[in-house]
Task: structure prediction
Amino acid sequence: MKSNDLIDLARWMAGDFSNQKQAFANSQLYAHIRIFFRPLPFEFFSGIGFYSEQAYDYDLWSPYRQGVHRLVDMGDCIYVENYGLKDPVLYAGAGREPDILKTITPDCTQRRLHCSMVFRREGDLFRGSVEPGCRCLIPRNGRQTYLVSEVELTEDTWVSLDRGFDVSTHEHVWGSKEGPLRFEKRESFAGELPAVSLSL
Result:
């Protein structure tokens, strides 16, 4: 893994993404969703980190998924560690409002073990998937499921497919059966990445 791959991954991730075209083309199958990846200060992780949130476009103040992420160069790949927020409602909107983003501290977060995403560069894109082992557990509908997540990232697009499978039967319990969500970058936040981390 080239050292600048970590920087490229961070620059490409940093942004406001929308699947508006997909949703408008087939509104019966796809809701209009926004994803925000907002860079955190260098001091947060002593490196590159992000706050993320996903929300329906019509209700941006009520994100249905929030997280904090740390990028780690593992040599042959890049790990994106995942952290949950202990009281996520306090930080809703931080993807769009820098003043809210500033209130997030490491003490607010809790590591989600076995839920890192592993990214590898393939030419002009990065391909990522949840770390192997089927151990990223998510309770859903009274059942314990494990996450299978696949992501394809380019400089301007984010394509993702998240699904949950029963830990005992491996039955598909939740997530899209219609294929991946396809997002286009509306705005880049790469300029907010801490300069000190980009020069390491």
